[in-house]
Every structure is written in C-alpha cells, then in structure tokens.
Write a structure and sequence with these properties.
The complex is a heterodimer of chains A (335) and B (738). Helix content of chain A is 40%, strand content 18%. With 335 residues, chain A is an alpha/beta fold. About 16% of the residues of chain A have low confidence. The chains are: A alpha/beta (335), B alpha+beta (738). At the A-B interface, β8, β9 and α9 of A face β2 and α2 of B. β8 of chain A pairs parallel with β2 of chain B.
C-alpha cells in the first residue's frame, strides 16, 4: 500500500478525467436571489441596501455551501480480510507485503480474485479522498473494526491532509483487518460531530458482523447479527438529519456465488467458529440466505434515501467510482 | 464361532484404516476462512445432522468392509444340531433314493414326509461336496429314473427342490436295484446309496436288490424317524459291540404288550378305503344301489367314530361313522339312489382327513344296470290266461306291467324263435319247451357262450330223452324222467309228501335278497320234479338249490362267457305252488338279473393310478379328448386312433374321475358319458407298516460309518459374510455418490 497515493491519483485522474463536475462541491460564494423576510430568517442576511431602496426587508439567498465536508468511513473489521481461497497468512502477505510487483487491483487480469475486500475498499476510499481533496472539500476518515485502535482523521480541506488520510489507510492495511466492531460505532461518532453541519458520509463495508452466539446447527434468522440492521438504521438516521449518505457494500465474488467444492472447513474470520461441510449440499440454502440479507439492506437504504452501491471486488474500481459519480451528477442535474 | 484360518484375523487391524482415513480426511479438508459464516451456519442447520449421519454411516460401512474381509478369509464356522445321516465329504458316488410314493404325503406336524426327504437329500448333497457324483432315484412304482451320476449339483438341487409326490405306491426294491447298478458303474471307491424312505414293507420285494453283502454301502434314513428303526442297513454287529441280540433275552418270551407298544411306535396311523363295490339294490327302488366301501385301519391304534361319507355326482348323500381296531378291515354299506336323468353316476366314498389324505377317497364310475331284455319262450301257451305257462313268470318279472322294473319282456313261441335275433336279448327263458332242432340249439348255445344267460325250466312238454339227444349243449346235466312225488295221495297226505326247497346257496347273488330261512321259498310245495343225470360238458356246474329229498332244484353252469340255469320244475302251478308264495317274484327277478350280469362287470373294473385305461374307439371317431381330475386335457388323434378299435390312455396320474369326449370328421365334440372312468390309488401304498429289518438288503463291505441321526454339523459362515461384504460395498457406493 506504499504507493496508495499514486494509485489513487491514477484511478482519479486517468480513468475519471473530465467526468466529475465542480458543481458538485462548488467553493465560490454566489448570490442566487432575494426572498422577502419572514420571521426565523437570519437578520445578518437582510439586504439593507434593498431595504433602503424599496423600504422592505429582503433576505439574500446564496447558492450551496461552498466547501463540502465528507466523512469517509472504512470497514477494517476482520471480515473484510476475505480475498479468495488463499490461506490467511498468504493473504496477509498480499495485503502487507507491499510487493514491488503489486499492481493496482483494477489492472489485474482476474480482478477481485486475489484482492481482499479491505484492500478494495481502501483503494476506493483513497480514490475518493484524492478526488475530493482535489476539489478542496473537507475530507475526514473514520476506520472501524478494531475497538482498540482509534483511527480517525478529522475533516480538512488542505492538500497536505490527503497524506494523513493515505497514511491511516496504509497503516490499516499493513496491520490487516482485525476486530469485529460494528459500523454503528463509527457512524454514531460522525453523527455526534456533524450535528450542525450537513455532510457527505461514504461508508465502505461488507456489513458482515459475526454472531458468536450462533453456532453450527442453531437457528438463524438469516441476517448475521444486528450489525447490518443497526448500520442501515444509523445510515437512515444520518440521512434523516440531512446528511448525504452513500453506502458501498463491498462483497467478494466467492461470497456472492459460493463456488466452493469438496469437503471444506470454513473458519470464521472474526471469531473461533468453524464449520466442516460439503459446499454442494449447502449452496442453495446459503445463496437464499445471502439474497435475503442483501435484499434487506437494499430495501432499507432505498426506504431511507441512502445511496446504495453493491460492489463486487471483481468489479474494476474506476467503474465503481464512475457509478457513484454518474449517479450523483444525475441527481445534481435534477436538483 | 470358530475359524479354520484364525491367523487371517490379524487382518482385522485393517479396521483402523477407515477410521484413520476418516480422521485424515477430516483434517485434509480444504480450509477456507470465510466472512459469511453466519449464513453457512444458518444453512447448515438443516443439513448438519444429515451430513453427520452420512459421515457416520460411511465410517461404519467402511469399517465393516475392512473387518469382513479378514473374517471371511479366516473361514469362520459354527456347529449346529443336524438331522439325518452325516457323510464323509469328498469324491465318491452317492445315490439318493427318495421315496416319492403317495405314502410320502403323510403329514407330521404340518410337514409331509416328502418335504423331510427333500430337506435331508439337500443336506446330504451339501455334505458330500462338489467332488461327489450324485444321482437321484425316485422310489415310486414306474418312476422315470436317471441313467447316470452327475456332478451338476445345481441341477440336482433344483430337481430335489421341485420333487412332488406321485400317487403311486412305492417300489423300493426296484429303486435300490437301479441305484446299485449306478453305483457299480461309478469310478469311485466310495459308493453309497442313501435310502430316504417311509420304509413301508409293501415297497420291498422278496428278492433283494443285490446279493447279500455284495452291494454298495447303504445308509437308511427313516422319514418317520422311528428310533426303533435307527441303524437299518448297517451290517450286523456294527451297533452292537457285544454281539448280543434279541435271542439273548433272559425271558426268552415275546411279550405281546411290548409288541403292541412297539407297533404303536413303529406303525404310523393310517385309515384308508381300499375298495368300493356297487351293486343294484332293488329294495331302494329302480335306481337304488348298494355301495359297499372296504375300509382298513393300517395303524396300530384303535380308530373310533371316524366319519365316512358317500357322494354321488358331487353331492353328499350319506354319512356314517366307523370304529376299527388295529389292522382291522370293515365293510361299510350305503344304500342310495342314482339321480334320475342318467344311468351313469360318479360315486365317491371318502373318510374324514387323517395324516395321509390321498387314500381317504375312493372313486367309482357306476352305471345303472341297463334294461334287461328277456325273451320268454312259451312252451305251453294257453288261451286261458292263468293256465298259460308264462302267466306267473311275466307277472313276476314285470309286476303291474310297470316301466321302471328294469326288465323288458318279449314272449315268443318256439316256432317264432327262429325269427328273432338273440343278440338283442340278455336272458332267454325256455319255459317247458319241447326239444328243439340241433341247429336251433346250436344257435342258442353259441349265443350263451357269447355272454347270454339261459334259464331252462321243465314241464309236461319236456321229453327227457329228446332233450338229452338234442338239447344237451344247453343242459348243465342230463335229464331223467320226471317223478310225481305225491302220486296216489290226496288231501293232507299229498301236502305232506310234496317236496320243499331245503338248501340253497345263500351267498349266491341270486339268493342274496333272501333271509337264511326264507319262508317265501321254504313253504312252497313241489309235486313233480325232474331228476337229473350225469353232468354234461360244462364248466363250474353247481347246485344252487336242493329239494328236501336232496334232488337238485336249480343247477347253474358256465358256458363260455355265458351262464346256464336249469330249474327242475315248472314256473307255473302245474308241478308246484311256488308261484303263489312270496319268494317266487324275487327269485325270478334275481335269477334274470344274475344271468344278465351287466352291472357286475362294470362295477368290478378298478383302474389304479399310472395304469392304462382302455378306451373304445367307435367308427367315425377321429379324436379322443380326456380330461382328468385336475382339468388337464389329453388328446388322442391321428395315427394313434386311426383304424383302431381300442386305444390305451396312460396319463392317469391323479386319482379321480376322467371324462371322455370324441369328435369325428366334423370336429364337433361329443361327450361320451359311457366311456368315463375312475382312477384310484393302489391300496398297497396305504399300508405303511415298516419293513422288517431282515428284509432290507445287506450293505456291502464298503459300508460307511453311519453316525447317529442327531449329530453336530459344521456350518461354514464365510458365504454369508461374503454376501454381507457385497452388500456393504453396495451401500458404500450408494452413500458415497450421494
């Protein structure tokens, strides 16, 4: 991850050149129109010159807040470590080894097959940070997963701030995904910080939070833990408070297709549970449970106005960014 | 359980192989650290138990396979109590003589003796092993027996399993003789004949199947498992090392009580009908018959109130009870009426079931005697009816001129005799006729020899000399002059001097209807009689009735197939007053029926199972169809019937009634009721008394040691384990594929 800034810049400048619009996050203070004063309007916005001319109180209305505050929230819990069928040690080497031959994931022949979800999410968050800082937006970073590690970068708009963000992301990747802290914790902190200010909140997570109480053979309601439900609720709450909320739901193709064959010992990434099973025998039930899980999250986001993007790590990063920006451009156009 | 090769059990350590593989396989399972384990666990809920069961089942099956192989190689065996003789295994000639006579259908505890024989034969077949050459010979009379020994044990096993008892008696001696021939032609040193039989004495001939001491080894298996007969067939002294025998009994006496007890143990209970006779019974009406069943108790115990019943045309018409002592024979008469509509009837007499069912039924096809055609030749006709010679005879033979008397009368004079065809008559009565010409006499004599019955009565027209000259072929004895025993007497003196009938053959069929003293005959007075001279050239002449003066009253003789009877007085009132006595009518009717004899001939015919029935072929018959009691159908046609008057039908394997149909050129089937016949089992086979040991053939020097009837027998188990192994492999394949 040592070349994270470079890769982020390649992704943003190379692949997405000319596609984003400054209007998304305009920084100028432009007068828009006059509005007759009504109680509750701020007195400091009264146009006294107009009062002098027409003897009426008019209030100046401006275009959007000039500098956008963006909170990027990265899931670094242990479940994000999954990157295929490699042994965990080998995968950790991929994540932390900073091999010179390592190339950007979107350029790999089989993108997604050897890339962990954390790695993918990291590149995605870094690219967004690069893009937003370049537009002088204030960008902050929250990383959750391990409750023992406080990885929070407050929003700043300086270009040098980008280095801080990349440093934290790089550190998280070097350390590897650990812990099982839910996304709610990070989202609650942002909600607390941004009580008075509307901001853009981007969460990149698989929303998979383990339920250690659920053992093999026990009943399950099909949704692993209260995490996804809690995270979705929190996202909806933030949206209700006026924040713009985007959810990148990062999933590995193996999780979506369950292609395993032969006797397999499945070990939990977040706890000590394991399961010996014949994948062929349980594939249908697994895919049905996964579909219910995804449908629940998708429906929750849709109902709460949360922008939802299900991303497979096989999907090229630029197309994921393109998907986000194109969607937002359309929404801005409609506005 | 023991093992022939216990070292092979070391291979049972292989049991650990599947366990290890199972554990290794579990460890070698591909490891995937997976994020969505909660989904898996939720899905797994339904399949986990099934998966564990499958794994456990596979482990057990594979462990079973690994265990079964060394155990099978160790050749496990166990011992069990075996019945029947134990024989040496190995190369040898073994001939199994199996009693398939109908006595083998004897039931004990719901199992027939034939089933026992089959079981023991299969046991012997298994014990001798695949290297033995084996032949199976059936002991029923007339059985088809194989020509050679065979190693094809599978075929022999099928043959034994499919054996069914025949309905014929046993001919054990012949079967043993055939077995000895096969044994003599075998290339083995060890040659053994296994006799599995009821050992009924009737199956053994007086001449032994092989010379004493020169035959093959003989192992006798008594199917009735009588301990008294154990060891039969062994050479003397084999079972008696002391050399003592029964003669050493200090008492030196044969206690009858002991003998009875021994009989009860050795002679199986069996009640059988050995014969049925049907005769006309006029007292029961024109269609009345007397059915007499002959029943014999072949057992050694009393039989009390055993039910017997008579069925005619399938309907039970009479029932009765029998009580017989051991070995006792008894005649059981039934009086019955043949149903109207046909003069033929199927008569069946049956006993209540006992252990041997087949001889509890007896069948007879009977025919009501045909109308007897009687030609009455009147030698002294008279215009006054009661003075006519035949007035009383006609009234006696056809009382009331009823049509159901069974008799058709034709009256003629001597002159008219030449115009009549005698073959149309069964009986001719020459009543007081004058001596006839030689030609006419010759014609009548020829007719008698052909089966006719002639009753010759005398009277005033009879000239003894003339008769002795020309009528001699028709006379049992020459005639002398008549004598009038009451000549010159009157009144009561005349009555006293008259002759009476004093003696008669009460056993003769003609007198069977009379009581011993027969007042209806004895009271008649005879004034004039003809004395008889020397015997003529006839056969079986005998005097049936004599007068009080010892002169012959009725003489019978046989001439060819026919019979002659001479009545030495008149059949009207001229010489006696018999006609007014009650004995006259039955006497005349009995004489005529006896002379006709048609009923008796048919009733005597008895056809045993396996014997050929002779069927008459009528002109125009091109096909005969015979259906048996089991509704099987046999056809005789083509060259077998062409230009023949009789054909033989040998497929009489079952007792019961056989129906005959014929068809001519038109192909239309016609039921030939008169050709139906009944087949019965030979009563010889019903006698199950055991053969005396001294009548059994003496085994030769190759006599094998005969072990006790109950002994320990080794049962190899590897076959079953091999089958189990195959099953385990199959289960393993099926479970693995799932």
């Amino acid at each position: 991850m040592g070349n994270l800034p470079l890769k982020a810049r390649i992704i943003v400048e190379g692949a997405l050149s000319g596609l984003h619009r400054a209007r998304l996050h305009g920084s100028s203070v432009e007068f828009a129109e006059h509005k007759e004063y009504s109680p509750g309007d701020e007195i400091r916005h009264i146009d006294w010159k107009a009062y002098a001319k027409v003897d009426r109180y008019y209030v100046k209305q401006y275009e959007q807040e000039s500098q956008l505050t963006v909170h990027l929230v990265l899931d670094a819990s242990a479940s994000m470590a999954y990157g295929g069928e490699q042994a965990p040690a080998a995968r950790r080497r991929v994540l932390t080894g900073a091999s010179e031959n390592q190339v950007a994931p979107e350029t790999q022949e089989s993108a997604g097959q050897g890339v962990s979800k954390l790695e993918y999410a990291s590149y995605l968050i870094a690219s967004l940070a690069h893009l937003l800082i370049g537009q002088r937006d204030r960008v902050g970073l929250s990383v959750f997963g391990d409750p023992n590690i406080d990885a929070y970068v407050p929003p700043r708009g300086r270009p040098a701030h980008l280095r801080d963000i990349f440093s934290v992301i790089d550190g998280v990747n070097r350390r590897g995904p650990t812990g099982a802290e839910p996304a709610v914790v990070a989202l609650e902190r942002i909600a607390e910080l941004e009580r008075r200010r509307r901001s853009l909140i981007v969460l990149a997570s698989d929303l998979m939070e383990s339920r250690p109480d659920l053992q093999a053979g026990e009943a399950s309601d099909g949704s692993p833990g209260e995490g996804p439900g809690g995270a979705t609720t929190m996202l909806r709450l933030l949206r209700a408070r006026g924040h713009d909320v985007v959810l990148f739901h990062i999933l590995h193709p193996d999780e979506l297709e369950f292609p395993f064959q032969g006797l397999t010992l499945f070990e939990s990434l977040e706890d000590e549970r394991n399961l010996l099973a014949t994948p062929e025998a349980i594939r249908r039930d697994y895919l049905r449970a996964l579909d219910e899980f995804l449908a629940g999250i998708r429906q929750g986001c849709m109902d709460g106005g949360v922008e939802y993007h299900q991303i497979s790590t096989r999907q090229p990063l630029e197309s994921s960014l393109l998907e986000l920006l194109a969607g937002r451009t359309q929404r801005a156009g409609r506005a | 359980m023991e093992f022939l090769a216990p070292l092979m059990l070391l291979g049972a350590a292989g049991l650990l192989i599947p366990v290890i593989i199972h554990l290794i396989g579990r460890r070698r399972a591909k490891v995937v650290r997976f994020a969505a384990l909660d989904f898996l666990i939720g899905s797994r809920r339904k399949t986990a138990r099934r998966f564990r069961l499958r794994e456990l089942l596979l482990l057990i099956v594979r462990a079973g396979i690994c265990l079964a192989i060394p155990v099978a190689l160790a050749q496990p065996f166990t011992s069990c109590d075996a019945e029947g003789p134990a024989v040496e295994r190995g190369a040898q000639a073994a001939i199994l003589v199996i009693d398939d006579s109908f006595a083998a259908m004897y039931q004990i505890d719901g199992e027939s003796l034939l089933d026992r024989a089959k079981r023991q034969a299969l046991s012997i077949l298994e014990q001798v092993g695949p290297d033995a050459e084996v032949a199976v010979i059936l002991a029923a009379e007339g059985s088809d027996n194989p020509a050679e020994l065979s190693r094809d044990h599978l075929r022999l096993r099928d043959m034994i399993t499919g054996l069914e008892a025949s309905n014929r008696p046993a001919d054990t001696t012949n079967a043993l003789r055939r077995a000895a021939q096969l044994a003599a032609g075998a290339n083995h040193e060890r040659r053994t004949v296994f006799l599995l039989s009821v050992l009924a004495a009737t199956g053994f001939h007086d001449d032994p199947p092989w010379p004493p001491g020169k035959g093959p080894a003989l192992v006798v298996v008594d199917l009735l498992e009588r301990p008294e007969l154990a060891g039969l067939g062994e050479p003397p002294g084999v079972d008696d090392p002391d050399g003592s025998d029964d003669s050493d009994d200090p008492d030196g006496a044969d206690d009858p009580d002991d003998r009875n007890t021994a009989d009860e143990d050795t002679v199986p209970d069996n009640l059988a009908i050995t014969g049925v006779d049907v005769t006309r019974d006029p007292s029961s009406g024109p269609r009345g018959v007397r059915v007499t069943a002959l029943i014999q108790n072949f057992g050694a115990r009393d039989v009390a109130e055993h039910e017997i019943q008579l069925r005619i045309n399938g309907t039970t018409v009479a029932r009765g009870l029998l009580s017989l002592g051991p070995g006792e024979r008894q005649r059981k008469p039934f009086l019955a009426t043949i149903p109207a509509g046909s003069r033929y009837a199927d008569i069946e007499v049956s006993l209540a079931p006992d252990r041997l069912l087949v001889d509890n039924r007896r069948f007879i096809r009977t025919e009501l005697r045909e109308e007897i055609h009687v030609l009455l030749v009147n030698g002294d006709p008279h215009t006054v009816r009661h003075q006519d010679e035949l007035f009383y005879a006609e009234a006696a033979l056809r009382p009331g001129d009823r049509a159901d008397t069974g008799t058709t009368l034709t009256t003629a004079t001597v002159d008219e005799l030449g115009e009549l065809l005698l073959d149309e008559f069964d009986v001719v009565v020459l009543a007081n006729v004058r001596a006839m010409s030689g030609e006419r006499v010759s014609r009548i004599a020829a007719w008698v020899k052909g089966g006719g019955g002639l009753l010759l009565t005398v009277g005033d027209n009879v000239d003894s000399d003339a008769y002795n000259q020309s009528m001699l072929p028709l006379l049992p004895q020459r005639l002398k002059d008549p004598i009038e025993v009451t000549y010159g007497s009157r009144g009561s003196e005349r009555a006293e001097r008259a002759l009476r009938l004093a003696k008669w053959e009460s056993e003769h069929p003609a007198f069977s209807v009379f009581t011993r003293d027969a007042p209806g005959l004895r009271d008649a007075r005879f004034h004039t009689i003809i004395l008889l001279g020397p015997t003529t050239r006839v056969d079986d002449r005998r005097v049936l009735v004599r007068y009080t003066n010892d002169a012959a009253a009725l003489v019978e003789a046989r001439s060819g197939a026919g019979r002659l009877m001479l009545w030495t007085s008149t059949i009207d009132r001229d010489w006696n007053d018999l006609v007014i006595h009650p004995g006259y009518l039955p006497l005349m009717q009995q004489l005529v029926r006896y002379l006709a004899r048609k009923q008796e001939q048919r009733a005597r015919e008895t056809l045993y199972v396996g014997r050929s029935a002779v069927l008459r072929v009528e002109a125009g018959d091109s096909r005969l169809e015979i259906s048996g009691p089991d509704l099987s159908r046999a056809v005789i046609e083509g060259e077998r019937i062409k230009d023949r008057k009789y054909v033989r039908f040998a497929e009489t394997g079952d007792p019961g009634f056989y129906r005959v149909w014929t068809s001519g050129e038109s192909g239309e089937l016609n039921y030939r009721v008169e050709a139906d016949f009944a087949v019965n089992v030979d009563p010889r086979g019903s006698d199950l008394r055991p053969v005396p040991p001294e009548r059994l053939p003496t085994a030769g020097p190759e006599q094998a040691e005969v072990r006790p009837a109950n002994h320990k027998r080794r049962v190899e188990l590897w076959h079953a384990i091999a089958v189990g192994l195959l099953m385990l492999l199959l289960v393993e394949s099926l479970v693995s594929l799932r």
